[in-house]
Write a structure and sequence with these properties.
InterPro entries: RutC-like_sf, YjgF/YER057c/UK114. Pfam families: Ribonuc_L-PSP (PF01042). Its EC number is 3.5.-.-. This is RidA family protein. There is one protein chain. The two termini are 14 Å apart. The longest helix has 18 residues, at 46-63. The chain has one domain (4-128): 60s Ribosomal Protein L30, Chain: A (2-Layer Sandwich). With 137 residues, it is an alpha+beta fold. It is built from three helices and six strands; from the N terminus they run E-E-E-H-E-H-H-E-E. A six-stranded mixed beta sheet has the order 1-2-3-6-4-5, covered by helices on one side. It has helices at 46-63, 81-86, 88-99, and strands at residues 4-6, 20-23, 26-32, 71-78, 105-110, 121-128.
């Protein structure tokens, strides 16, 4: 099986990376920050950036027929863990709004900076999509 790049038109055109890589029915989701369609980090704090970044992840997932319940692993990189923890309830509400009550294996990792200087969060993951829903680009 050859890897297939997954780059939804709804997301900024990637240069030097792919939004996702599909191998069989496993989608490896590239790290998503809170970039909007104009390649700008959305204004606001960690909650708004979580909404945009996770929405970008889900856009890539849905491009190949995946749904949030297909996520098996999510890793969240944070430049300010205490800020994320302070807004945990709000972030949880956003998660449930976008993905429902299903939670995959998760990790939160602190880091000093992300690629875009204004980004405070980056989310990546892995999903296994059932064959009957899989759409290969």
């Amino acid at each position: 099986m050859s890897p297939i790049a997954v780059n939804p038109r709804a997301l900024p055109a990637p240069r030097g990376y792919s939004h996702g890589t599909l191998v069989g029915n496993t989608l490896h989701l590239g790290g998503q920050t809170a970039l909007d369609a104009d390649m700008r980090i959305v204004p606001g704090g960690v909650v708004e950036q979580f909404r945009q970044a996770f929405g970008n992840v889900l856009t890539t997932l849905r491009e190949v027929g995946g749904e949030p319940e297909d996520l098996v692993s999510v890793t969240i990189y944070l430049t300010d863990i205490p800020d994320y923890q302070a807004h945990g309830k709000e972030i949880g509400r956003v998660w449930r709004e976008l993905a429902g009550p299903v939670y995959p294996a998760m990790a939160g990792i602190g880091c000093t900076a992300l690629w875009q200087p204004d980004a405070v969060i980056e989310i990546l993951g892995v999903a296994v999509i059932p064959e009957h829903r899989l759409r290969v680009p």
